[in-house]
Automatic annotation (TrEMBL):
The keyword Oxidoreductase applies. This is Short-chain dehydrogenase. Keywords: Oxidoreductase. It comes from Sinisalibacter lacisalsi. Pfam families: adh_short. Belongs to the short-chain dehydrogenases/reductases (SDR) family. It comes from the Bacteria. The keyword Oxidoreductase applies.
Length: 250
């Protein structure tokens, strides 16, 4: 995959899937813009990647921070071709009846409003350039309720709807909106799920999870015309045929 000359903004790039995606897109020749709250981590990763990487500290809950980060990215690299809405949280895992309303709401602000903020900021720019790709990291939890995860399942389901809505409004303008359901991935999020001890995902063994490089590879593939049949929908890395098409084993 050659992404030379393309600029990719990745939210939640300080570790896990977002970090792996930043490295994979940079390896494919793209300019990469890393967003996360942990400025030190994204700064370090950007320095390791090189001159084609820019780190911008940003909390996706904040519209003004996302807008400013997208403007800085576009100014530095002359536009944005791909947005990867990846930032997300699983905490606080809690039964609905015992959940803390403020914490529940905060998770929604990150997992759903963060996606909206990213889309809202890049779409006008992409329209001006004649198109772009908006890839949103979804979850099997967008389609299945899991106990203790009401905030996560509901916010991921709503984020999936944002992909569908964006496709409906902007496909004709050349904006490619697709979701990725990665399966379970060996990241900090799975450590938090394990530590909660709640539900079937917490019972999985670490060896059951795929490495973050797999969804990173999938996100690269989603920028190709081969993925166009999924525009407005979601692809699942659990599907062996899809994995084969992306050149992933297992
Ligand atoms: P992770 O290692 O915990 O990484 C989450 C990332 O999101 C971090 O970079 C974190 O950075 C960032 N983030 C959290 N809150 C943020 C905020 N308010 N503003 C900006 N960035 C924020 O988890 P991961 O597994 O890589 O998760 C990435 C995505 O994959 C999430 O959307 C998750 O729901 C999805 N997913 C994961 C799995 C899995 O099994 N791991 C399965 C399905 C879907 P800072 O803390 O530095 O801000």
């Amino acid at each position: 995959m050659d992404m030379t000359g393309k600029t990719v903004v990745i939210t939640g790039a300080s570790r896990g899937i977002g970090e792996a995606a930043a490295r994979a897109f940079a390896e494919a020749g793209a300019n990469v813009v890393l967003l996360a709250r942990s400025g030190d981590a994204i700064g370090r990763i950007a320095r390791e990647i090189g001159d084609n990487a820019l780190a911008i500290t940003c909390d996706v809950k904040s519209w003004s921070q996302v807008k400013s980060a997208i403007e800085q990215a576009a100014w530095r690299f002359g536009g944005i071709d791909v947005l990867i809405n990846n930032a997300g949280v699983i905490e606080p895992i809690a039964m609905l009846r015992a959940s803390d309303p403020a914490a529940w709401s905060k998770a929604f602000d990150i997992n759903l409003k963060g996606v909206y903020h990213g889309m809202r900021a890049v779409v006008p720019m992409m329209r001006e350039k004649g198109g772009g790709s908006v890839l949103t990291v979804s979850s099997g939890a967008a389609h299945n309720a899991l106990e203790g995860w009401s905030h996560y399942c509901a916010s991921k389901a709503a984020a999936h709807m944002m992909t569908m809505a964006l496709h409906k409004e902007e496909a004709r303008a050349g904006i490619r909106a697709i979701g990725l359901s990665p399966g379970t991935v060996a990241t900090e999020m799975q450590r938090e799920i394990k530590a909660s001890g709640v539900g079937p995902v917490a019972a999985l063994d670490w060896s059951d999870h795929i490495p973050p490089e797999w969804p990173a590879q999938a996100l690269l593939w989603m920028c190709t015309a081969d993925a166009d049949e999924f525009l407005g929908g979601e692809i699942s890395l659990r599907d062996p045929d899809i994995r084969k098409r992306m050149g992933l084993g297992g």
